[in-house]
Design goal:
Largest sheet: none
Bound molecules: protoporphyrin IX containing FE
Radius of gyration: 27 Å
Order of helices and strands: HHHHHHHHHHHHHH
Structural class: mainly alpha
CATH topology of the largest domain: Cytochrome Bc1 Complex, Chain C
Length: 324
């Protein structure tokens, strides 16, 4: 029997998978989306940097967890000695711990920069308010990760710093609520082994799972809305500045924009990207006449028409070829 070429094996595997779930379509949709030109500015990279740093934190955290012992009983406590062991004896342990520590600091700086960018470009406004709220939730999750992680080395600094932060957190003016928060976090009347147990669980299981979940929601929202154009950009964007996702067309303005977009868009040729993708791959039929019309309308200096405004006349005339 002839040995199959690796490409044939690859095709067979992909076909087998695609028959069970449209993986190729899903991957194409995820990967081949146009990035608008204005998003090439350096300050649009902060969100991506935050994502990369979180991946680093997850990876280095898993490596640290291989040696860390979350036990604060006894003197010296295994938690303390295990961190010493990682720092001084484990092969490259100092590096992994250092990356995790500095990554955490850098992460907070990057999140703040990312928030500043979103604020500066007005990207928190409709329809992205919910994504801003998701972002604020992630900010709190990241701060909670920093707080819970700080206790884990179980040295003097970690112990007393956590005592202070718990006191601050429990500073709620309603006494029973304050006591409840304190008891819940400490797991007893003072910071002790149960506190470490709880902080470890939060730091290693609960918070990372939540942040991954929220990041997924954050990215789905970004894909649905497209990247917001900055407030300072010209009101007459060029063809290459067209938002990349159809839903952002719908939210940005009129029916005709959505309609044109849908008709000129094609996913059939993922290797061809850029504004000419539609014309190159499928203009032979429908979009050939829609495309220049959409382009002309979009780059006119007309201010965006409010959503749902009557625009049938434009749709009807400019894209009448769609029925052909
Ligand atoms: C775990 C933390 C976060 C990650 C991984 C993350 C990632 C991203 C990425 C990759 C983008 C695409 C555009 C860009 O990179 O600037 C983005 C957009 C956005 N982010 Fe975040 N982000 C995080 C936290 C936040 C926070 C704390 C806020 C605000 C409180 C926020 C609000 C937004 C908004 C509103 C957008 C849409 C901006 C637009 O459409 O131009 N994000 N985020």
């Amino acid at each position: 029997m002839a040995i199959p070429h690796p490409r044939e094996i690859q095709v067979a595997v992909v076909n087998w998978l695609d028959e069970r779930y449209p993986f190729t379509k899903a991957v194409d949709e995820a990967l081949y989306q146009r990035v608008p030109n204005f998003a090439n500015a350096f300050y649009y990279c902060f969100g991506g940097m935050v994502f990369i740093l979180i991946v680093f934190q997850l990876l280095t955290g898993i490596l640290l967890a291989l040696y860390y012992v979350p036990d604060a009983s006894g003197n010296p406590a295994p938690a303390y000695t295990s961190v010493n062991f990682i720092q001084n004896s484990v092969y490259l342990g100092w590096l992994i711990r250092g990356v995790h520590f500095w990554g955490a600091n850098l992460l907070i700086i990057m999140v703040l920069l990312h928030m500043a960018r979103v604020y500066w470009t007005g990207a928190y406004r409709a329809p992205r308010e919910l994504n801003w709220i998701v972002g604020v939730t992630m900010l709190f999750l990241i701060l909670a990760l920093a707080l819970t992680g700080y206790l884990l080395p179980w040295d003097t600094k970690a112990y007393f710093a956590t005592e202070v932060t718990i006191k601050i957190t429990a500073g709620v003016p309603i006494a029973p609520v304050a006591t409840l928060i304190k008891e819940l976090l400490q797991g007893g009347p003072v910071v002790g082994p149960p506190t470490l147990q709880r902080f470890f669980t939060l730091h290693v299981f609960v918070l990372p799972a939540l942040i991954v979940l929220f990041m997924y929601v954050h990215f789905r929202f970004i894909r649905a809305h497209g990247i917001a154009e900055g407030l300072t950009t010209s009101s007459t964007p060029s063809w290459s500045d067209w938002p990349s996702s159809p839903s952002s067309w719908a939210t940005q303005g009129t029916t005709w924009r959505t309609t044109c977009r849908m008709r000129t868009r094609t996913r059939s040729s993922p290797t061809i990207s850029g504004p000419t993708r539609s014309s190159r791959s499928s203009c032979s039929s429908r979009s050939a006449c829609c495309l220049p019309m959409c382009r002309r309308i979009f780059s006119s200096s007309r201010p965006p028409t409010p959503a749902r405004s009557p625009s049938r006349d434009l749709t009807g005339t400019s894209c009448s070829c769609s029925s052909s």
